[in-house]
């Protein structure tokens, strides 16, 4: 099967999805409107068009006519939706990522593009129920919409032996470690975690908080940590190589996400659960569809630092509970969000369309 993907090559999510089908032996064409920040696999026929959207539309249409793929799959319905709309293909699959639909429908022009590309798409794949509801508001028939998760590599993200060397890189000794993998932007509300950390550290000083990420609020968050006087217990790691994450997660004891909104379950949360790390995440969006509170994880009200601190203290004090909840977390990820299983569902849809 020859599949053409219209997707940004600076996104790890694009690489994960597309590499699966390239590695399964399909003939893959990948067209990106931005330069690749991650190396594109050698078994993919890759094209970059960065000279502007209108010029790119004509070049892409000409290329697709020449290569004649069986399927054109659009990831993100902004400019890539425009490319798909004018691609000349009549076998289009669309995968909205969230903001492309939610924000796009607020603009008259973007909303017209959305209507047209969604109507032209034979199938639509999304990873969240609330996205399905948003698509229905745009008059997309239910039988067109398929909910399939992006998936986690549960073989790669699996519990490993604790590696003290990787913690020592961030000046963390053998004390219990609480990790966050959300970036330093307003939507992820790291401030709530820092306030909770200040509460926890007053009662249990021998705990470390590792904030993995970067973003526009980094300096502000560091000032907040200093204001609380907890610099020795809260560590900013900066960028961490993706290959180190399974080991880093396995060497941590509790994972926290304070995000104010997620589309489906966040990849970092699913990765932590897959590594059998008990997770505490905000009760926002569809997180309650993934977390059975006190069974395979814990939910707290968004922006509620006191409640978060209370759950943290409970978990810090109960080693057996951490193990039990961590194992239940992995079970649900294997069942509902395993990368191989989810991509096989996509493959079945491709075959159905062809």
Order of helices and strands: EHEEHEHEHHEHEHEHEHEHEHEHEHHH
Judging from the principal axes of the Cα atoms, what is the shape? elongated
Mean pLDDT, as a whole number? 94
Strand fraction band? 15-25%
Structural class category: alpha/beta
Task: Describe the fold and architecture.
The chain is α/β, with parallel strands linked by helices and 354 residues long. It is 44% helix and 17% strand. It is built from 15 helices and 13 strands. The chain has helices at residues 12-23, 53-67, 79-85, 99-102, 108-120, 129-137, 164-168, 190-203, 218-228, 245-250, 267-274, 287-290, 305-317, 319-336, 339-353, and strands spanning 2-6, 27-32, 44-48, 71-75, 92-95, 123-126, 145-147, 176-180, 207-212, 234-238, 254-257, 279-282, 298-300. It has a 7-stranded parallel sheet with strand order 3-2-1-4-5-6-7, sandwiched between helices. A 6-stranded parallel sheet has the order 10-9-8-11-12-13, sandwiched between helices. Helix 8 (190-203) crosses helix 13 (305-317). The longest helix is centred in the C-terminal third of the chain and has 18 residues, at 319-336. The model has no long low-confidence stretch (mean pLDDT 94).
């Amino acid at each position: 099967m020859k599949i053409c993907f219209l997707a940004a090559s600076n996104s790890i999510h694009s690489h994960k999805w597309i590499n699966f089908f390239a590695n399964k032996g399909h003939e893959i064409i990948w067209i990106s409107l931005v330069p690749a920040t991650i190396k594109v696999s050698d078994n993919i026929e890759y094209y970059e068009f960065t000279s502007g959207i209108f010029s790119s539309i004509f070049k892409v249409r000409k290329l697709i006519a020449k290569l004649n793929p069986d399927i054109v799959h659009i990831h993100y319905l902004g400019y890539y939706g425009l490319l798909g709309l004018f691609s000349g293909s009549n076998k289009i699959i669309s995968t909205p990522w969230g903001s492309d639909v939610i924000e796009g429908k607020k603009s008259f022009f973007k909303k017209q593009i959305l209507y047209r590309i969604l109507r032209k798409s034979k199938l639509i794949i999304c990873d969240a129920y609330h996205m399905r509801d948003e698509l229905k508001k745009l008059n997309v028939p239910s039988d067109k919409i398929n909910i399939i998760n992006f998936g986690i590599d549960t073989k790669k993200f699996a519990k490993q032996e604790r590696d003290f060397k990787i913690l020592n890189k961030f000046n963390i000794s053998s004390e219990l470690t609480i990790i966050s993998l959300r970036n330093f932007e307003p939507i992820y509300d790291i401030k709530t975690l820092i306030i909770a950390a200040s509460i926890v550290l007053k009662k249990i000083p021998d705990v470390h908080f590792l904030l993995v990420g970067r973003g526009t609020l980094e300096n502000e968050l560091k000032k907040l940590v200093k204001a609380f006087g907890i610099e020795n217990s809260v560590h900013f790691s900066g960028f961490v190589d993706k290959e180190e994450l399974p080991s880093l997660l396995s060497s941590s004891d509790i994972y926290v996400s304070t995000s104010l909104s997620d589309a489906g379950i966040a990849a970092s949360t699913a990765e932590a659960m897959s590594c059998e790390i008990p997770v505490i995440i905000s009760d926002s969006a569809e997180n309650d569809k993934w977390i059975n509170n006190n069974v395979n994880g814990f939910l707290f009200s968004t922006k509620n630092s006191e409640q978060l601190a209370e759950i943290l203290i409970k978990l810090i004090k109960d080693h057996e509970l951490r193990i039990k909840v961590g194992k239940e977390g992995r079970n649900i990820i294997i069942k509902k969000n395993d990368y191989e299983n989810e991509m096989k569902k996509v493959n079945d849809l491709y075959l159905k369309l062809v």
